[in-house]
Amino acid sequence: MSTSSAERESLQQWVGRSETRTETFDARPATLLSATLDRDDPAPRGGDLLPPLWHWLYFLPSYRESEVGPDGHARRGGFLPPVPLPRRMWAGSRCEWKQPLRVGDTVTRFSRIASVTTKRGASGELVFVLVRHEFSAAAGLALIEEHDIVYRELSPAGAAPPAEAAPTDAQWTRRIVPDDVLLFRYSALTFNSHRIHYDRRYVTEVEGYPGLVVHGPLLATLLVDLLRRNGAGETLRRFEFRARRPLFDTAPFDVCGRPANDGTVALWAQGAGGELAMQATATP
Fold first, then answer.
1. CATH number of the domain within which 157 lies
2. pLDDT in tens, 85-99
3. Containing domain of residue 102, as a range?
């Protein structure tokens, strides 16, 4: 399956489309994510700092059951463009904090489709959708996030990009066992019904993967959590990540990091064979 020239032209009509939502960042989702990450945090209270990337617990999708597509996502169209390619993945993000967000804040998110780009890669056609989010609280603009979504062809089934070796100079390393419970809990916390994360029959027989896929934002959250466990990362100025290769529940993986000479922190996730799965940079 690939997009026609008429479909590619039609997708451009979504550029500039926007939506605005307002929500209060209550404490309960933060409590549950802390438990999911196996942290020994005190119960969050109003006014406490919300750890970086935990804003993904809010502004969750709320499409009705009748609006669910065959892969578990909402049917195409609506705010996001109706890209006809079957696979949809979170390819990366770039976040810049102007000020920290806090538990109890009432936050307004303004979202805009910034671009829709079609490319051809080794695995076939790719469509990239860039969404820009701006989060504002009572004191003004708090966070700007650029979110890269990639749509791919289904074939060749289960194909993965060539493995790239992860760095070997980690200063911090934590082993993660991505069992069904961890993936289920994160899916539930983010109201993510994408079947690749919990439906083993679908992910292996339809999408051709060897096992359940570890969520990209969960990997990114685990990378920042590693930073926090090593005395930094309670607040960040910038964080960006790029997904390089999927990880599955079939084997443990490592989240790794090391401070860089320029004041940033290099972070990455690697598979059991040392292959690079996600690459990130944090600026405290």
1. 3.10.129.10
2. 888 899 999 999 999
3. 5-283
